[in-house]
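S1.2 Input.
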Amino acid sequence: MKDTWRLLITPPAHGAWNMAADEAILEAVGRGDSLPTLRLYAWEPACLSLGYAQPLTDVDIPRLHVRGWEMVRRLTGGRAVLHTDEITYSVIAPLNEPRLVGTVLESYSRLAAALEQALRLLGLPVEVQEHAGKAGKTPNPVCFEVPSTSEITSGGKKLVGSAQARRKEGILQHGSLPLTGDLRRILQVLVFPDEEARTRAASHLLERATTVETAVGRVVSWNEAAQAYIAAFRSVLALDLQVGELGPQEKARTGQLVALKYAAPDWNQKQKS
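S1.3 Output.
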């Protein structure tokens, strides 16, 4: 028997709004005011997101400003992601949702099965990375540099970067699928000791990560990718996805979180440890 979840498809938005919306939905789901939710979205303008505990010193702020890109700190952990030319998903559910119960890795694995199927529907040869190796002795600021457990790869190169947060309200997992473009762009706004190091990092990144267009050999639109996600989540996770929208309380709370948190310097620029 299928369980009913809400499907949200929201227009492209600023980074602060996107992160605030995910948290507002998490709070509403935790109160029981909203159904578990699959949200699909995009970013406008391009935005660099940092993991919750990632040091701000990883970012070259002047270079970021010159390019007109935004920056936001996520509620979830992990490394930096440049959100542009991609589709982003978020899964938000209470702690007792059967598809997300258990350990972080167990829930990752269940969601990865749906993500894998979505990419197969797009014609990509993919596999789930179950036992990734260590990234090396030097911490890497780029999310797409190294595959993690239960993340999706194609030809050994990372395709989907995901991160999860668990709060008393429930579970939030979101992730990015780069559809096209030059993955090396992110390196232009990160700090390196010199330009030679930046060049080496660019070469390593292309060896370890890829886009949908490169992997499948054709351009895949945002709408096509979204339909693949919807079909895969319905079939693999046995979900009845009902198209909905943010409720009035969620919209109001999103605005509050933008102003008080995700667009605020004390959140984005604070040195986490």
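S1.4 Remarks. The longest helix spans residues 104-121.
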